[in-house]
Amino acid sequence: MEEVEIIVAHHERATLRVGDVFLKVDTDQARADAEVAAMALAPVPTPEIRWRKPPVLALAALRGRELGRPGTPSAASSEAWAAAGAAARKLHEAPLPPSPGWNPDELAADLDRECAWLIANDALPAGLVTRNHQIAKAALRPWTPVFTHGDLQVAHVFVEGDEVTGILDWSEAAQGDALFDLAALTLAHQEHLSDVLAGYGTDVDLDALRAWWSLRSLRVVHWLIGHGFDPAPEVAVLEAQLFQY
């Protein structure tokens, strides 16, 4: 008898694995609809949809293994990281998806709220939050919208050898800043940034990309704490940023 493996679960959604099928349970059907639509549009490998019966979406397992895990050294090759960068570039060159995503003004307001919460609730040292808040503002400049995955973290990219076999979790896909995806991919894995950029194949604004490391980390710590997850990798990124500038 095949066992049920809980991949992730919180009050918004859950992902289970049974054999070679992943079952995503999401009570927000608009979000689930957006994920299915984004996978259909994306010009990169995505999981095969086995069946869908709301609130459950059944996806075939991808070949290979995750590119890495947040806060854990990656065993993937430099070539695999470069392949992930190339996949990101292919996605960013595709026609825009319908969702407009965040704009700089909305992100700035959200960042202000999150930083205020972190300080008011003593979730992080005030100096750490304030300095990274200043760094993060460099990301909030006008950008040319591209097709972004929206949560391109290492655990969502699967590789086999030096090949990307698929990218998971498209519920946040939208128009956005290309550097947001590249920052998410290299968050807590900054040592692989050069590999990713080699595969991406074009010059990027490194200051803006590093600013996204601060912005993404500051915005997600509150959510992670509230859903019972350990924000240690994001906190480590925020601490490392102090030595980068």
UniProtKB/TrEMBL annotation:
Keyword Transferase among UniProt keywords? yes
| Matching SUPFAM superfamilies | Protein kinase-like (PK-like)
- Name a GO molecular-function annotation: transferase activity
- Domain Aminoglycoside phosphotransferase stretches: 28-207
InterPro entries to which the protein is assigned, alphabetical:
AGP_Transferase, Aminoglycoside_PTrfase, Kinase-like_dom_sf
Q: Which UniProt keywords apply?
A: Transferase
Highest taxon above the source species: Bacteria
The answer to keyword Transferase applying to this record is: yes
In Swiss-Prot or TrEMBL terms, this protein is called Phosphotransferase
**Origin species:** Amycolatopsis dendrobii
